[in-house]
Write a structure and sequence with these properties.
Length: 183
Protein backbone atom coordinates (compact mmCIF):
# COMPACT_ATOMS: atom_id res chain seq x y z
CA UNK A 1 0.00 0.00 0.00
CA UNK A 2 1.36 3.42 -0.93
CA UNK A 3 1.83 5.85 1.92
CA UNK A 4 1.01 9.48 1.19
CA UNK A 5 3.85 11.92 1.83
CA UNK A 6 4.10 13.65 5.21
CA UNK A 7 4.19 17.00 3.39
CA UNK A 8 1.61 16.43 0.66
CA UNK A 9 1.62 18.42 -2.56
CA UNK A 10 -2.01 18.54 -3.66
CA UNK A 11 -2.71 18.87 -7.36
CA UNK A 12 -4.14 22.19 -8.55
CA UNK A 13 -5.49 22.49 -12.07
CA UNK A 14 -4.66 25.59 -14.07
CA UNK A 15 -6.76 27.28 -16.74
CA UNK A 16 -6.08 26.01 -20.27
CA UNK A 17 -7.13 27.19 -23.69
CA UNK A 18 -8.58 24.95 -26.43
CA UNK A 19 -5.08 23.85 -27.50
CA UNK A 20 -4.21 22.68 -23.99
CA UNK A 21 -1.83 25.55 -23.29
CA UNK A 22 -1.84 26.75 -19.70
CA UNK A 23 -3.11 30.29 -19.27
CA UNK A 24 -1.90 31.09 -15.80
CA UNK A 25 -1.32 34.53 -14.46
CA UNK A 26 0.58 35.48 -11.32
CA UNK A 27 -2.82 35.86 -9.62
CA UNK A 28 -3.83 32.32 -10.64
CA UNK A 29 -0.71 30.89 -9.01
CA UNK A 30 -1.60 32.39 -5.63
CA UNK A 31 -5.31 31.62 -5.68
CA UNK A 32 -6.47 28.83 -3.42
CA UNK A 33 -3.59 29.44 -0.98
CA UNK A 34 -5.60 31.72 1.33
CA UNK A 35 -9.18 32.73 2.02
CA UNK A 36 -10.78 35.84 0.57
CA UNK A 37 -12.61 38.59 2.44
CA UNK A 38 -16.17 37.30 2.83
CA UNK A 39 -15.60 33.59 2.16
CA UNK A 40 -17.02 32.82 5.61
CA UNK A 41 -20.34 34.33 4.48
CA UNK A 42 -20.88 31.83 1.66
CA UNK A 43 -19.38 28.60 3.02
CA UNK A 44 -19.61 26.85 6.40
CA UNK A 45 -16.22 27.34 8.02
CA UNK A 46 -14.40 25.99 11.04
CA UNK A 47 -10.74 26.65 11.78
CA UNK A 48 -8.29 23.81 11.20
CA UNK A 49 -7.83 23.20 14.93
CA UNK A 50 -11.60 22.96 15.57
CA UNK A 51 -12.03 20.50 12.70
CA UNK A 52 -9.15 18.41 14.02
CA UNK A 53 -10.65 18.36 17.51
CA UNK A 54 -14.07 17.42 16.09
CA UNK A 55 -12.57 14.51 14.14
CA UNK A 56 -10.09 13.20 16.71
CA UNK A 57 -11.36 14.45 20.08
CA UNK A 58 -7.94 15.78 21.05
CA UNK A 59 -5.34 18.40 20.16
CA UNK A 60 -2.96 17.64 17.29
CA UNK A 61 0.53 16.26 17.85
CA UNK A 62 3.63 16.28 15.70
CA UNK A 63 2.50 13.02 14.06
CA UNK A 64 -0.70 14.66 12.75
CA UNK A 65 0.88 16.80 9.99
CA UNK A 66 -0.77 14.91 7.12
CA UNK A 67 -4.26 15.19 8.64
CA UNK A 68 -3.73 18.91 9.37
CA UNK A 69 -2.57 19.47 5.77
CA UNK A 70 -5.70 17.70 4.50
CA UNK A 71 -7.95 19.77 6.77
CA UNK A 72 -6.32 23.00 5.55
CA UNK A 73 -6.75 21.93 1.91
CA UNK A 74 -10.38 20.90 2.49
CA UNK A 75 -11.08 24.30 4.05
CA UNK A 76 -9.45 26.14 1.15
CA UNK A 77 -11.27 23.98 -1.42
CA UNK A 78 -14.60 24.72 0.27
CA UNK A 79 -13.92 28.44 0.46
CA UNK A 80 -12.79 28.61 -3.18
CA UNK A 81 -15.86 26.62 -4.25
CA UNK A 82 -17.62 29.91 -4.92
CA UNK A 83 -16.74 32.36 -7.66
CA UNK A 84 -14.89 35.53 -6.76
CA UNK A 85 -17.84 37.62 -7.99
CA UNK A 86 -20.29 35.68 -5.79
CA UNK A 87 -18.20 36.27 -2.67
CA UNK A 88 -17.62 39.97 -3.34
CA UNK A 89 -21.30 40.50 -4.20
CA UNK A 90 -22.35 38.81 -0.95
CA UNK A 91 -19.97 41.06 1.02
CA UNK A 92 -21.46 44.15 -0.68
CA UNK A 93 -25.01 43.01 0.07
CA UNK A 94 -24.16 42.24 3.72
CA UNK A 95 -22.59 45.66 4.18
CA UNK A 96 -25.59 47.28 2.50
CA UNK A 97 -28.03 45.44 4.78
CA UNK A 98 -26.09 46.47 7.89
CA UNK A 99 -25.94 50.09 6.72
CA UNK A 100 -29.60 50.32 5.65
CA UNK A 101 -31.03 48.61 8.72
CA UNK A 102 -28.70 50.64 10.93
CA UNK A 103 -30.45 53.82 9.82
CA UNK A 104 -33.60 52.56 11.55
CA UNK A 105 -31.76 50.82 14.42
CA UNK A 106 -32.71 47.27 13.33
CA UNK A 107 -30.26 44.38 13.49
CA UNK A 108 -29.84 42.43 10.24
CA UNK A 109 -31.52 39.01 10.30
CA UNK A 110 -28.31 37.07 9.66
CA UNK A 111 -28.23 33.57 11.15
CA UNK A 112 -25.46 32.62 13.55
CA UNK A 113 -22.42 31.43 11.61
CA UNK A 114 -21.06 29.41 14.49
CA UNK A 115 -19.95 27.76 16.54
CA UNK A 116 -20.70 24.47 14.84
CA UNK A 117 -21.59 21.36 16.86
CA UNK A 118 -18.74 19.17 18.08
CA UNK A 119 -19.04 16.64 15.27
CA UNK A 120 -18.19 16.26 11.59
CA UNK A 121 -21.28 18.12 10.39
CA UNK A 122 -19.69 19.47 7.19
CA UNK A 123 -18.31 16.23 5.69
CA UNK A 124 -14.64 16.81 6.46
CA UNK A 125 -13.90 13.08 6.78
CA UNK A 126 -15.13 12.39 3.24
CA UNK A 127 -13.26 15.45 1.90
CA UNK A 128 -10.08 14.24 3.64
CA UNK A 129 -10.49 10.75 2.14
CA UNK A 130 -10.87 12.35 -1.30
CA UNK A 131 -7.72 14.44 -0.76
CA UNK A 132 -5.76 11.37 0.36
CA UNK A 133 -6.98 9.50 -2.73
CA UNK A 134 -5.83 12.43 -4.88
CA UNK A 135 -2.26 11.91 -3.63
CA UNK A 136 -2.17 8.40 -5.12
CA UNK A 137 -0.80 8.05 -8.64
CA UNK A 138 -3.34 7.72 -11.42
CA UNK A 139 -3.21 5.53 -14.50
CA UNK A 140 -2.08 8.33 -16.84
CA UNK A 141 -1.05 11.16 -14.50
CA UNK A 142 0.93 11.37 -11.26
CA UNK A 143 -2.37 12.06 -9.47
CA UNK A 144 -5.91 10.63 -9.49
CA UNK A 145 -8.49 12.21 -11.78
CA UNK A 146 -11.54 13.89 -10.25
CA UNK A 147 -13.90 11.30 -11.74
CA UNK A 148 -12.06 8.57 -9.82
CA UNK A 149 -11.85 10.51 -6.57
CA UNK A 150 -15.52 11.51 -6.78
CA UNK A 151 -16.53 7.85 -6.50
CA UNK A 152 -15.69 7.98 -2.78
CA UNK A 153 -18.29 10.71 -2.24
CA UNK A 154 -20.87 8.91 -4.38
CA UNK A 155 -20.30 5.65 -2.48
CA UNK A 156 -20.66 7.38 0.87
CA UNK A 157 -23.84 9.09 -0.34
CA UNK A 158 -25.34 5.73 -1.33
CA UNK A 159 -24.49 4.21 2.06
CA UNK A 160 -25.85 7.27 3.88
CA UNK A 161 -29.14 7.10 1.98
CA UNK A 162 -29.56 3.48 3.10
CA UNK A 163 -29.22 4.46 6.78
CA UNK A 164 -32.22 5.46 8.95
CA UNK A 165 -30.92 9.03 9.15
CA UNK A 166 -30.37 9.20 5.41
CA UNK A 167 -33.71 7.64 4.54
CA UNK A 168 -35.51 10.28 6.61
CA UNK A 169 -33.45 13.23 5.40
CA UNK A 170 -33.64 12.06 1.79
CA UNK A 171 -37.35 12.92 1.76
CA UNK A 172 -36.57 16.62 1.99
CA UNK A 173 -33.21 16.92 0.25
CA UNK A 174 -34.85 18.38 -2.86
CA UNK A 175 -36.31 21.23 -0.83
CA UNK A 176 -39.81 19.80 -0.83
CA UNK A 177 -41.83 18.78 2.18
CA UNK A 178 -41.89 15.21 3.42
CA UNK A 179 -45.22 13.47 3.96
CA UNK A 180 -44.62 13.55 7.73
CA UNK A 181 -44.74 17.36 7.68
CA UNK A 182 -48.31 17.32 6.43
CA UNK A 183 -49.74 15.52 9.48
Amino acid sequence: MLQPPAEPKFHHSTPQDEGGFHRTTQRDLHQHLHARDGDHLVSPFQCDLCVFRNLKGRNPGSHDKLLLACIRQANLDALWGREIATVSSTVRVARDLVRLLGTVDVSPPFPDLGPHPVADTCGYSIAIAMLLKSLQPGRYEPYQQYETIHKLRAGFSNIFQASPLGANSFKTMGGGQSEDEFY
